[in-house]
Amino acid sequence: MTSIGRIGTVGLCCIAAAGLSRAIAGATPPSGVTAETLAHVSFPLIPGSADIAGTDFTARKITIAPGGTTGWHYHDGPVYAYVEQGVLTRTLHDCSQVSTPAGQVIAEEVNADHVHEGTNLGTVPVVLYAAYIEPPGKPFAEDAPAPPCAGAA
């Protein structure tokens, strides 16, 4: 699949479905994660305009090295990601785990009550193409402490 095709796939997921932030005490830092912004569009808030007004849309390529982690975080807006390579294992706010292999799409839940951590438990890098639909000025992710069920202090 070409880069344009991947961006289109992520964009279609967003349409069909509708830098990290400041540190928080106890937050778990990411490690082994790199990200590249592929596209960004801001829709200014105009009174009486469409529902997407006042929204930032960003497409990013994210790579998580073997053994890498995103750290615990949450999103202020919807995030949809296509797993191009590897298997992404996400630990959710209730400490349940979900593994998503290459070729599958992930839809992240929104807000601080949906903290999660993405990890690469495999031997090849995990490559994601993610689409962020965020309120203007918000970071791609908000750092958060691990939930009590994860044994965090």
UniProtKB/TrEMBL annotation:
Pfam families: Cupin_2 (PF07883). This is Cupin domain-containing protein. Keywords: Signal. InterPro entries: Cupin_2 (IPR013096), RmlC-like_jellyroll (IPR014710), RmlC_Cupin_sf (IPR011051). Residues 1-23 form the signal peptide. It comes from Rhodococcus sovatensis. Residues 62-130 form the Cupin type-2 domain.
